[in-house]
Design brief:
With 185 residues, the protein is an alpha+beta fold. It is 40% helix and 18% strand. It has five helices and seven strands. The strands form two sheets. Strands 3, 4, 5, 6 and 7 form a five-stranded antiparallel β-sheet that branches. The protein has a two-stranded antiparallel ribbon with strand order 1-2. The radius of gyration is 19 Å and the shape is elongated.
């Protein structure tokens, strides 16, 4: 869901970065930009297999919401948001790697486009997850006006998935705020 619609900067769908062709693709959230819209795309064979079965969806066939989904796709294309995701994503990754050189708490920076993870560790060599520190950084950024996510198996990865319209100035705010919050920790 979160990697769809060009957020990776290089492909429209996240799975395309892995060289696979799935049998089923689900999409939601980004497709409607806040309205209740989702879709499932599948192979002809799978689609045929459910024709004789009962299935139901809550918001199926809503023409107003479908028009909004179409408009979302048109805006992504017209405003070059996929290319922007790549450009700003590369800029952010470079800035986050510079922060990693400054702050030992950052053990890894990874991602594609505007889907970025910053793994916090107590010890870079041992890769010991910095769970408590991640909570503190998460709360400090929120208090400073920067909303990011937190996840990972150990809860020590800062999840940075900003809107695809993020500007370089917005990225500078993100990097500066994160830098200050890491200094506090």
């Amino acid at each position: 869901m979160q990697a769809g619609f060009g957020r990776t900067g290089t492909h429209f769908w996240g799975f395309e970065t892995q060289g696979v062709v799935p049998d089923i693709v689900t999409m939601a959230k980004s497709i409607g930009n806040g309205v209740p819209l989702a879709a499932v795309v599948t192979t002809h064979k799978i689609a045929e297999s459910i024709k004789s079965r009962v299935h139901f969806n809550t918001f199926g066939g809503n023409p107003v919401v479908c028009a909004q989904g179409k408009a979302v796709l048109e805006v992504i294309e017209r405003e070059g948001l996929q290319a922007n995701s790549l450009k700003v994503g590369v800029y952010l990754m470079d800035g986050l790697r510079a922060l990693a050189a400054k702050h030992d708490l950052i053990g890894d920076v990874r991602g594609k486009g505007l889907m970025i993870g910053v793994e916090l560790v107590k010890d870079r060599a041992a890769k010991t997850p910095a769970k408590e520190e991640a909570i503190r950084v998460f709360e400090a950024t929120k208090d400073a006006g920067l909303l990011i996510g937190k996840g990972g198996y150990f809860g020590n990865v800062l999840r940075i998935k900003p809107p695809m319209c993020l500007t370089l100035a917005d990225a500078d705010f993100l990097l500066g705020t994160l830098d200050l919050c890491l200094e506090k920790i």
